[in-house]
Amino acid sequence: MQTKVENNKAWFLVMPVFLIVAFSAIIPLMTVVNYSVQDIFDPYTRYFVGTEWFKQVMLDSRLHEALLRQFIYSFTILAIEVPLGICVALMMPTKGRGASVALILVAIPLLIPWNVVGTIWQIFGRADIGLFGAFMSYIGVDYNYASNPADAWLTVVLMDVWHWTPLIALLCYSGLRAIPEVYYQAARIDQASRWAVFRHIQLPKLANVLVIGMLLRFMDSFMIYTEPFVLTGGGPGSSTTFLSQSLVQQAIGQFDLGPAAAFSLVYFLIILLVCWVFYTTIMNMQKDK
Amino acid sequence: MTQSSTTPMTHEKTSQGRASQNTKVTKEQAPVYSRADRKARNANLRGRFGLALYVVLLLLPIYWLVNMSFKTNTEILSGLSFFPADFTLENYAKIFSDSTWYMGYVNSIFYVSMNMVISLLVALPAAYAFSRYKFIGDKHMFFWLLSNRMAPPAVFLLPFFQLYSSVGLFDTHIAVALAHCIFTVPLAVWILEGFMSGVPREIDETAYIDGYSFPKFFVRIFIPLIRSGIGVTAFFCFMFSWVELLLARTLTSVEAKPIAAIMTRTVSASGMDWGLLAAAGVLTIIPGMLVIYFVRNHVAKGFALGRV
């Protein structure tokens, strides 16, 4: 890495970013902090309640369930998307017109608005008008994502795999392209097996992009809202209600501002912790280079 | 004279020597290579087949949506068919003839473009500062920016609504554009910083010695150097602002309502208007597909926040 010059005037260059993000980030955050320690009946009647909401939230069993579901969900999709993404990246052609066509086709799901992703799967999974639903009932599976929790889970996971595997695939693809051809020539001369090439040449080079991809996927899946909301509405029951959705239900649906704000802060702290791990990992990776 | 006559000779010699060496090597290795080659070719074919299968599965749900958008509702509900028997453009006609429908697209494109311009304008100087200078709190500032990219929108939903209502920006395009800045600006700074770090410092120093002032250098020399980076950043701002719904829906009611929110209108007392919903969905996919072509070679770098 190049050495940087020390110069505090650089703050003038950062100032616009700071102001614009602070307007949308710090003011709302302070509002949330404000709510989290008060009991609000209407805009003029409010009481200071200290840490009561936090205690209530920490002991709330609905929150625990949502958190558990959230972790199971995030790890499930990672376990499927990462290996699948690597496989797709290995299969993509590296040269010529085929390469850009494959790249564009694979990237399509990433460019679809999230609620439309939900809509697509809502239609696709229905047994009466959707291809997937019809296929499932054709092979004799009693499939209905709106009434059976297991089917709802299957559909939500499948939707996320469909939607986000391309991200892992694209990252790995660009990682693979950065490997010089001579490595492969050396491997051919040594008559290395396909597996050995993957294990000792390709995988180490993919480590960096995989870390970025996995952490991005973990965090984004941790705040997933729109797609399951459109697809299942969190149901049947609350079987696919993840953290974001249970938060929105509480804040907007029931208008429990205090508990919802306390919940928001706890949620935000979890995210911040993961984010810090992400940041330090990337920074250390850069130092090693 | 002598020099010019000898140099081609030596060149010829060396190239000949190399050529013969090369053929020798390939001859020796020939049997090994051909087996390995055949294996590689088989693996390649398997790869092509696997990829084709994956792409087909990937496109199947989208194909189904497109297929449905050309059908009438009676046909959709009467049974499955892979091609519309009664091909109709009625669903699209409905969208393009009703201003409450097509204004949704106009609104979305409007705030997305605004967001793109704002993000780029503020992120360019900041990314330059991060890539070139050390200053007090630089690392903390960078981390803080990143943490906003990771903040779940659900956390800020209600405070956003109150904030923008209290400053009189509720239901305007600028409100959505500013709210989306919370995740597009950090992203833009990160991607641009990655691209800028790839430009050698010497270029800056030479320009300053040549008497360029900072703004002049930045606009005339530096920005043209990172053109592709700016293109990719613009694409990503566009994309993330385009696919987001939660904030856009919360901050608007009539005037600036995005298409994503208008789509919920297809649910009515008489049941779902599936054909119309499908047509509206298809139309939201098109802008993304148009712009990705221009950045196809840099998409991955953008997703890796400029760090591949």
Automatic annotation (TrEMBL), chain A:
It comes from the Bacteria. PROSITE patterns: ABC_TM1 (PS50928). It holds the Pfam family BPD_transp_1. It is found in: Cell membrane. It is a multi-pass membrane protein. Its main location: membrane. InterPro entries: MetI-like, MetI-like_sf, Sugar_ABC_transporter. Keywords: Membrane, Transmembrane, Transmembrane helix, Transport. SUPFAM superfamilies: MetI-like. The keyword Lipoprotein does not apply. The keyword Iron does not apply. Residues 67-278 form the ABC transmembrane type-1 domain. The chain crosses the membrane at residues 12-37, 71-92, 98-117, 152-173, 206-225, 260-279. Belongs to the binding-protein-dependent transport system permease family. PANTHER family: GLUCOSE IMPORT SYSTEM PERMEASE PROTEIN GLCT, TREHALOSE TRANSPORT SYSTEM PERMEASE PROTEIN SUGA. This is Sugar ABC transporter permease.
